[in-house]
Each structure stands twice: as C-alpha cells, then as structure tokens.
C-alpha cells in the first residue's frame, strides 16, 4: 500500500509539472504576480461594488421629493391618543426661497445648525400644515379619564409619545 501511495504522489507531481511548466522552487516573475493578483483583486471589488453602483445610479438622486402625506399622533402614557391629524394635498407645500433665507437667518449664530442646514436647498424642504384640532374624537372612558387626572396630579413622571408617519411618492420606476 505504501508503494501505491508513493506512485500516486509521483503521478500527481508529473501531472503538475506538465500542467504548470515552471520548475518547482524557481521564483515567479514579480510583474506576472502583480498582474494576476491585481486582476483578482479588481475582479472581487467589481463583483461587490457593481450592484451597489448600479442601484445607486438607477434611482433619482438629488431630486426633491416632498411628502405626500404627514400623519401625527400624540398620546399620554398608555391612554388613547389625545391628538391625531393627517395633512395631505394642499396642506403640504415646498418651502419658498424667502422663507428659507428667513430660517437661515434665525439659526445664523448656531454653528451646528448651519452645518446641518448647509446640506439642503430650499426646494428640498416640505412644509406640512397641521390643524390645531384633532381629526379624531378622544374616546377615553370616564374611569380612565379619572385615572389620567390622578396620574397627572401626582408627582410621578409620565411618558408623552409623539408619533409621525411621512409618506412620499415612490421613486422606483
């Protein structure tokens, strides 16, 4: 069995010498090593980055897309929402250039605000007008209302949750 293993090893070596004509132990040309290795590296990078670039360039990047619907909900503790409102259509509009300049002047002294606002143009901003009155009647039961009043009168802290949902037109063709 030892003889067969040795013969098999020799056969594999002869086949490798025939398939790869460079003698064993001899140094490969540095230029060839860089061409093969660099080509493999560029190939791997292309396989990973090509789909990302394709999808990034396929979408409309840099085009303003103001919301089509803005919904807001305010709740105190675990009780039902005390305020709900949804702005649509004519309640949402693009910011005018004069309004943008006025807003920039308000935050002129704040370096952090100026840094944040410098990433945007006036037409990137959408203004949603929310009404002062909720569109839904607050349906709280009398016992829950009394419990809420007691909780508010006590010194315990209560959570106030403000939730908003913003919907935009899809940019996918």
TrEMBL record:
It comes from the Eukaryota. Keywords: Membrane, Transmembrane, Transmembrane helix. It holds the Pfam family Piezo_THU9_anchor. Residues 1-56 form the Piezo THU9 and anchor domain. The chain crosses the membrane at residues 34-57. Residues 95-171 form the Piezo non-specific cation channel cap domain. The keyword Transmembrane helix applies. One of its GO terms (molecular function) is mechanosensitive monoatomic ion channel activity. GO terms for cellular component: membrane. InterPro entries: Piezo, Piezo_cap_dom, Piezo_THU9_anchor. This is Piezo-type mechanosensitive ion channel component isoform x3. It comes from Triatoma infestans. The lineage of its organism: Eukaryota, Metazoa, Ecdysozoa, Arthropoda, Hexapoda.
């Amino acid at each position: 069995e030892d003889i067969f293993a040795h013969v098999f090893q020799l056969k594999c070596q002869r086949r490798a010498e025939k398939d790869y004509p460079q003698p064993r132990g001899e140094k490969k040309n540095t230029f060839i090593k860089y061409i093969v290795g660099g080509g493999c590296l560029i190939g791997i990078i292309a396989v990973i980055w090509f789909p990302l670039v394709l999808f990034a360039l396929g979408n409309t990047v840099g085009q303003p897309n103001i919301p089509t619907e803005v919904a807001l909900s305010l709740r105190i503790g675990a009780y039902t929402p005390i305020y709900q409102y949804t702005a649509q259509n004519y309640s949402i509009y693009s910011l005018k250039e004069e309004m943008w300049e006025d807003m920039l002047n308000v935050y002129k002294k704040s370096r952090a605000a100026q840094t944040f606002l410098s990433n945007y143009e006036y037409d990137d901003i959408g203004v949603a007008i929310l009404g002062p009155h909720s569109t839904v009647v607050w349906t709280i039961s009398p016992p829950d209302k009394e419990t809420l009043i007691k909780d508010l009168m006590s010194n315990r802290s209560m959570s106030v949750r403000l939730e908003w949902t913003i919907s935009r037109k899809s940019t996918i063709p």
